[in-house]
User: Which sequence fits this backbone?
């Protein structure tokens, strides 16, 4: 009888802890929105790095809302969580993030206090651009979401070029060059401009939208 009890105890110690250990621990993120006089907002991973991209999955987000005039809102596919504006609070959200674009903002000051990140795989936006023949320049579409983009430029002029600039991007063809090139870039929120460096009248703009 004593041997059987001892054997049962051994088996229990082997199987129960392994079952508990098998339960996944969610990756932990930390969100902060500043004190009343600090217009600061951020989202960081367990190593303290600013979050720019995550894998799909379930995460625990420890939110430190230190203000009675700000709040922290996380929004994206399947998620729309927010702390209150009027109260300072410490809260932990468990959220499941899917492929897509997510934003975090302070609702009363969304134009000043905001950030974004991408999760998993998001579609690449394709653009068709060109300059020439003659005094012509084109870029389509004129608006896009943040994320990867593939831009195909058809340069048909030996006297003009195609030059794209904006957040994180500064790409151009040569003035005497004629031909087709493709650029792979990562678009960020903001305004991009395209132009010919030889003719100020040949120009236009691209708007990259902030997520949400």
Assistant:
């Amino acid at each position: 009888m004593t041997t059987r009890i001892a054997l049962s105890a051994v088996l229990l110690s082997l199987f129960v802890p392994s079952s508990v250990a098998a339960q996944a621990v969610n990756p932990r993120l930390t969100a902060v929105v500043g004190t009343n006089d600090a217009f600061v907002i951020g989202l960081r991973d367990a190593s303290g790095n600013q979050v720019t991209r995550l894998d799909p999955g379930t995460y625990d987000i420890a939110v430190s809302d230190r203000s009675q005039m700000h709040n922290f809102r996380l929004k994206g596919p399947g998620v729309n969580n927010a702390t209150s504006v009027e109260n300072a609070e410490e809260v932990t959200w468990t959220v499941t993030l899917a492929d897509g674009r997510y934003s975090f903002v302070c609702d009363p000051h969304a134009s000043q206090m905001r950030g974004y990140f991408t999760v998993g795989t998001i579609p690449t936006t394709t653009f068709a651009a060109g300059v020439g023949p003659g005094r012509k320049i084109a870029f389509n579409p004129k608006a896009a979401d943040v994320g990867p983009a593939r831009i195909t430029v058809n340069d048909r002029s030996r006297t003009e070029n195609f030059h794209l600039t904006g957040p994180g991007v500064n790409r151009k063809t040569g003035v005497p060059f004629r031909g087709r090139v493709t650029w792979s870039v990562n678009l960020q929120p903001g305004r991009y401009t395209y132009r010919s460096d030889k003719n100020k009248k040949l120009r236009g703009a691209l708007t990259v939208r902030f997520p949400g």
In short: The domain at 125-209 is CATH 2.60.40.420 (Immunoglobulin-like). The radius of gyration is 25 Å. Residues 1-22 have pLDDT under 50 and may be disordered.
